Amino acid sequence: MDITVEYFLGLNPTRQISLLKEMKFKKLSREERIDFIKTVLQSELSSKTTASALKVLRELKYRDQLFFRQFLYHADSSVANATRKAISDAIEQKDSGIIKITEILKKERGESRMEYLESILKDKIDFNADMLLSLLSIDDSSIREKLIREINRDYNLDEARLVEAIKGSVWHVRAAIVKVLSNRQSDYLLDVIEYLMDDKNVEVKLSLIDALSGIDPHQARVYLERLKQDSLVWVKKQAEKVLANTYKDIE
What we know:
With about 250 residues, the protein is mainly alpha-helical. It contains 16 helices and no strands. The chain is elongated.
């Protein structure tokens, strides 16, 4: 007999919990089991069934913390506890997964390195801000350039996390983050412009000048006029060039 959501919801809590442990359920693929549990959790289940379902999701190494958080403040402590364990495991799995992927990429060479990076980028659902930051930290300009080109708005990144990371990263990571935010036409870029205006690195400042082309022209002009007075010669020249080419017809 096929296991359907309707059939499951028609069972009493004891049978529901039992079914999640039965072999006929375990024979479903991991993705099918995850989808099934997520679906039934949207219905009104008993606290015992809810806690058991969350535990199964955790055992299946489901990592969506946002999904789990909706149960974090459940009135029943068994559900809240199961949720906390699931979130804790998700954080641990994410961190260890990022470290493993980054270390593998570091060891790869030549074409195989870029092929492995391609395989990472295909997973747009699990790819996140922390993964991006870890990969940008690898001392390989070709990796950074690939990430800058590829990480468009199709990737669901926590851009606030990227802005936060700018303030504690090395210069090449700061420059890359600015380019990624610019390519994604992120509003978060505005939150960090003033900080970047005081950056002492040429490449970071040049990345900022390029990024200014993506914001309101009148607003961008204010920053470019300031950058025209910058102490870094290349920054000053580039700001002057952009002003001359972009605003020559604007009085």
